[in-house]
Amino acid sequence: MIDLSRDHAERLDAADPLAGFRDEFVDAEPGLIYLDGNSLGRPPKATRERLAGVVADEWGRGLIRSWSQWIDRPALVGDLLGAELLGAAPGQVMVADSTTVNLYKLAVAALDARPGRRVIVTDDDNFPTDRYVLEGLAAQRERALRLVHADIDQGLSIAALRAAVDADTALVCLSHVAYRSGALLDMAEITDLVHERGALVLWDVCHAAGAVPIELDAAGADLAVGCSYKYLNAGPGAPAFLYVRRATQATMRQPIWGWFGQRDQFEMGASYDPEPTIARFATGTPAILGVTAVEEGVRLLAAAGIDRLRAKGVALTSYLIELADAWLPGFAVVTPRDPARRGSHVSLYHPEAWRLAQALIEAKVIPDYRTPDRLRLGPAPIYTRFVDVWEALNRLRDIAETKAYERFPARRARVT
Ligand SMILES: *Cc1c(COP(=O)(O)O)cnc(C)c1O
Fold first, then answer.
1. Which of 107, 170, 219, 247 has the least CB density, counted as fewest CB within 10 Å?
2. pLDDT digits (tens, 9 = 90+) for 233-277
3. Does residue 389 share a domain with residue 311?
C-alpha cells in the first residue's frame, strides 16, 4: 500500500541528498510549481551573477581585449560538459549554434562520409526539427528519408529499427529520450546495430542531457547534438552543443565553411582550410553570454552529480506515476513504466489535455501540453521537490473532479 499523504512527500524531501540545490536557483513566484524544466530550465543564481560580471567586467571594461579569454570558451565548456554529463573525453564537444543548425551540420558531414549510400533513417515521431532538417537534406542531396514507425508512448522498437537499417543506409538519427513520452532508447545497443550495417549514428540528446547518464564514448557514438536550455538551465535560446568522435574528426566536413573553423583563423587565409580538430565544426562568432550560461548550468549539475540526478529523476517520476494511478481516473500514464526505459518526464493521456493544461497554469502549476492529447509533466531533479509533485497532482485531481477545465477554450494557443 503506498502512502498518499503529504507528510510522506515531506519525508521524501527530508531524505533527499539534492534538496539543498533548490536554493541555488533564482526565486520563482511564491507557490508556483514548475514542471517544465525539460522545456526551459530555471535560472541558477550563479548564472545571474556570472553574466552580470561578464557584462560589467569582461565586456564593459575588457571590451575587445576579452576575446583572448573568450575565444577558447566554447571548447572549454564543451570539455566540461563532455566530462560531467556526456561521457566524452576532451576535444570532442563544442558549444555552438542551435541544435537545429548542429544537426544539419553533422548530418551533412555524415552523408558525405558515406558516399554511395542513399538512405537516412529516423523515426516518424522524432522531434519535428530533426525530421524537417533530415527531410530537407534528403531533398537537397537526393537521398531517401526512411521514417520508421515509433509508438508515440512506448517509443521506437529495436526490432523495427533493425528491419529499417541496411547496406544502403548512410545515417541513422534518433533522439535518446523521446520529447513527448519520455521513452528512453538504449544508446549502446542501437549504436552497435547501426555500425554492424556500416552506417553512422547521430544522437539527439536534448531531452536526456542533464537528466540521464550519457556515455557517448563508451557507446561508440559517432555524432551527437543537444540543447542547453532544458535540463542544463542555460536560458532561452542559449547555444547548443555538438559531439564528434575524435577518430573521425579530421575526415569529416560540415557544410558551413565559416572562419571559426579555419586553421590559424586570424591569418585570414585566402581559402578555407579547416582545423583537423573539433574546431572545424564551429561556424561563426560564438554567443559568449550564452556559452558562459552553459558553463554555469553544467557546473551546478556537476556539483549535484549525474548519478544522483538520475536516481532522483527516477524517484520523482515513479512517485508521480503512483499518484496519477491512485488519484486520476480518466487519465492514463502513457510513459514507459519501467524507469530504465524513460527519461525524467511523464506524459499523461486525457482527451481534454489542452484545457487541463490551461486550468493547471491558472492553479499555478506549469505543465506542458503536447499533441494530440498529452499532458507532459517534467520534474527536473535538481530543483523539484516531492512535495511539488504531490501538490501538482493534488491540484490536477481537483481540476479533473470539479471539471474546472471546462471554462477554458478548446482552441489551442500559438505557443503550447
Ligand atoms: C528541444 C529540442 C530541440 C530544439 O532544437 P532548437 O534548434 O533548439 O530549436 C531539438 N531536438 C529535440 C529532440 C529537442 O527536444
1. 247
2. 999 999 999 999 999 999 999 999 999 999 999 999 999 999 999
3. yes
Percentage of the chain beyond pLDDT 70 is 100
Instruction: Give the range of the structural domain holding residue 335, as residue numbers without chain letter.
Output: 6-43+305-407
Our count of domains for the chain comes to 2
Distance between CA atoms of residues 53 and 178, nearest Å: 37
Which of 101, 103, 105, 179 should be mutated for ligand 1, with most atoms under 8 A from CB?
179
Q: What's the pTM value of the predicted model, to 2 decimals?
A: 0.98
Q: Average pLDDT for residues 400-410, to the nearest whole number? A: 96
Residue 49 lies in a domain: no
CATH of the domain at 157: 3.40.640.10
Q: Do 351 and 272 reside in the same domain of the chain?
A: no
If one residue of 100, 229, 232, 294 were mutated to test the ligand 1 pocket, choosing by the most ligand atoms within 8 A of its CB, it would be 100
When pLDDT is cut at 50, 70 and 90, the band that residue 337 belongs to is: very high
* Cβ count near 319 (within 10 Å): 19
CA distance 363 to 300: 30
Residues 84 and 226 occupy one common structural domain: yes
Based on the number of CB atoms within 10 Å of its own CB, is 360 exposed (0-12), middle (13-18) or buried (19 or more)?
buried
| Cell 530504465 sits on residue | 340
Last residue of a domain, one of 303, 319, 338: 303
Residue 146 C-alpha to ligand 1 middle, in angstroms? 20
Q: Are residues 116 and 216 in the same domain?
A: yes
Per-residue confidence (pLDDT) for residue 2, from 0 to 100:
84
For residue 127, how far is its CA from the centre of ligand 1 (angstroms)? Answer: 7
Pocket lining: 58 vs ligand 1, CB cutoff 6 Å:
no
CB neighbour list of residue 177: distance below 8 Å, 6 or more residues apart: 183, 184, 185, 205, 206, 207, 208, 211, 212, 342, 343
